[in-house]
Design brief:
327 residues, alpha/beta, seven-stranded mixed beta sheet, 11 helices, 33% helix, 25% strand, globular
């Protein structure tokens, strides 16, 4: 089969190489999936660079989430039929940028009927992260104000839709007029172009000076620092990632004086420690998809041959929503 592999860490376009390798076979408790679509995440760029929290042995195949078709079952696997359409996280070092991938059967979930292959593939990590961040960590309530950074990106676009579905007023921060239109189309009530506007001032104006109840931050750096200037009393800042490249150093004295919470979110820990909670979240996300309340934004669909350039574009912040690879 064809599979992209990283033989030496570096920038995605240089590090990724399309190889011909044997099709893997599922072991006990595993499933072989024919990849129908794979989501492209910022994590894939970090994997290529060797900067992700998980460092798989070289050579490895990037691609951390997929929609696939069950091709074969390993020993002891029941409850899945050949040809079933499912979604899953990938099991590195055998990632999703390939024609086939082996994954643990325990993490396989049914693909929502309302979504096509590409939409189903990119539903998994971004929307699970949004669900746990907004509901499990921040306990977002109807009528609250949610501030979403990088609101037109893969993680941010999911948070915008989930925030609206939860009954919140959503303020989205983006970089550029094109991305501002995307955020509005996703349902954001107010959109701020950080290149021309001060989101702190806009948040205070929209909330009558009270501030945002929940901040969903996948950017870090200045986005985090400025968010502390417009966080509400008993507000919650959910730290999802650092796509801006700078890890902020929170001033805990400031959090004390203003009485707000700083909440870390590593969704992969739920998949490892509370898989039943992940399944319950998937059921709710599928219900929202069936109702039309959420629909992943797949702005670009690429053949397998273009995977390296797609990862490079995500790393450079040139995409909206989440690109998908269709082997």
């Amino acid at each position: 089969m064809k599979a992209w592999r990283v033989h030496e860490n570096g920038e995605p376009r240089e590090a990724m190489r399309l190889d011909e390798i044997p099709t893997p076979e599922p072991g006990p408790g595993e499933v072989l999936l024919r990849v129908r679509a794979a989501g492209v995440n910022f994590a894939d760029a970090l994997l290529c660079r060797g900067q992700y929290q998980v460092r798989p042995p070289l050579p490895f195949t990037p691609g951390v989430e997929l929609c696939g078709e069950v091709a074969a079952l390993g020993p002891g696997v029941t409850g899945l039929g050949a040809g079933a359409r499912v979604i899953s996280t990938a099991a590195l070092p055998g990632g999703a940028f390939a024609e086939y991938a082996v994954v643990p059967a325990a993490g396989v979930l049914p693909a929502p009927d309302a979504l096509d292959d590409a939409e189903a593939a990119v539903l998994h990590i971004g929307y699970q992260t949004g669900w746990f961040g907004l509901h499990r960590r921040a306990a977002l309530q109807p009528g609250e104000t949610l501030l979403v950074h990088a609101a037109a990106g893969g993680v941010g676009s999911a948070a915008v839709q989930l925030g609206k579905a939860a009954g919140a007023t959503v303020i989205g921060v983006v970089g550029g007029a094109d991305k501002a239109k995307v955020a509005r189309d996703l349902g954001a009530d107010v959109v701020v172009d950080r290149r021309t506007e001060d989101f702190v001032a806009v948040v205070k104006e929209v909330t009558g000076g009270r501030g945002a109840d929940v901040v969903y931050d996948s950017v870090g750096g200045d986005a985090y620092a400025k968010s502390t200037k417009c966080i509400a009393f008993e507000g919650r800042i959910v730290v999802v990632g650092f796509a801006g490249g700078k890890v902020p150093a929170p001033g805990l004295n400031h959090a004390l004086v203003k009485n707000y919470g700083i909440l870390g979110l590593h969704w992969g820990l739920y998949a490892a420690r509370e898989p039943d909670a992940v399944r319950r979240a998937h059921d709710e996300l599928s219900r929202l998809a069936d109702a039309g309340a959420v629909r992943p934004l797949v702005a670009d669909r690429h053949p397998l041959a273009d995977a390296a350039s797609a990862v490079e574009r995500v790393a450079a912040g040139l995409t909206t929503g989440r690109p998908a690879i269709l082997p």
